[in-house]
Design a protein that fits this description.
The protein is α+β, with helices and mostly antiparallel strands. The chain folds into two domains: 145 residues; 81 residues. It is 40% helix and 27% strand. It contains nine helices and eleven strands. The strands form three sheets. A six-stranded antiparallel β-barrel has the order 6-7-10-9-8-11. It has a three-stranded mixed β-sheet with strand order 1-2-3, with helices on one face. A two-stranded antiparallel sheet has the order 4-5. Helix 2 packs antiparallel against helix 3, helix 2 packs parallel to helix 4 and helix 4 runs parallel beside helix 6. The two termini are 31 Å apart.
């Protein structure tokens, strides 16, 4: 864990200059990985929650949280019980906090400007087996992550004046019509009206969404949809 933490150039990760303190991120994660008692875990959490990955007093999350989340989950898996509880609490805080304007998105393999909360949710789903085995706290994180749904488009067909977008759905698309962000070709476009027509069944991830008044050519395979409201989260 320590090698993985030290390999990150925390100073190169953008963050609000008045609030983000890269040194706190690195020191806090190292300290939490080694924490063996409540006092040590609390000190590490203070570093991480006071400007390292979030700023607890102002309920703000930094892009560094998206990088730190997999490391915190490693700590939850491999660290002491007190370190585990602190790590899960910090991830929960990062998922629920709002970022500062200008520092709301991060680049990933599936999008160049993905909202921080959606990246954290994706990382939580990737560790669902671990979290499900960590009791109520872990299951609560998975439930929170489910609100930040995403659909990776595999195929689109015309359906009257709309488009039926077929793909793999992660998370829970809420009932009704909602706005969504389309991430394709390095650009982000807002779709005003998207609804879930057929949800996944029998353990499958396959679903299809109706995109009102868009044609299939505008929704290429490999594009990803996220909740538009996540992109509007600004502290």
């Amino acid at each position: 864990m320590l090698d993985a933490i030290n390999e990150v150039d925390w100073g190169a990760i953008p963050g609000h200059p008045d609030w983000y303190e890269p040194a706190r991120a690195a020191r806090g994660l190292r300290a939490l990985a080694d924490a063996a008692n409540l006092a040590e875990a609390a000190e590490a959490s203070s570093l991480l929650g006071g400007g390292g990955i979030v700023h607890g007093h102002s309920a703000a999350v930094f892009p560094a949280a998206a990088v730190a989340t997999p490391l915190l989950l490693d700590i939850a898996q491999q660290g002491s019980p007190v370190a585990r509880d602190a790590a899960l609490g910090l991830v929960d805080e990062a998922l629920s906090s709002y970022p500062h304007g200008g520092y709301t998105r991060v680049t990933t393999s599936y999008g160049v400007a993905v909202p921080i909360c959606c990246v954290i949710a994706h990382q939580l789903r990737a560790r669902s087996v671990l979290l499900a085995g960590l009791g109520k706290r872990g299951r609560g994180l998975l439930a929170g992550a489910a609100e930040h749904w995403r659909l990776e488009i595999r195929e689109c067909v015309a359906d009257s004046n709309d488009t039926a977008a077929f793909g793999a759905l992660a998370g829970c698309f809420p009932s009704g019509m909602h706005a969504a962000e389309l991430h394709a070709g390095g650009e982000v476009t807002v779709l005003d009206a998207v609804a879930l027509e057929y949800p996944p069944v029998d353990g499958s991830v396959e679903a299809w969404l109706r995109v009102t008044e868009w044609n299939p050519a505008e929704l290429p395979p490999g594009a990803v949809l996220f909740p538009a409201e996540c992109g509007e989260r600004v502290h």
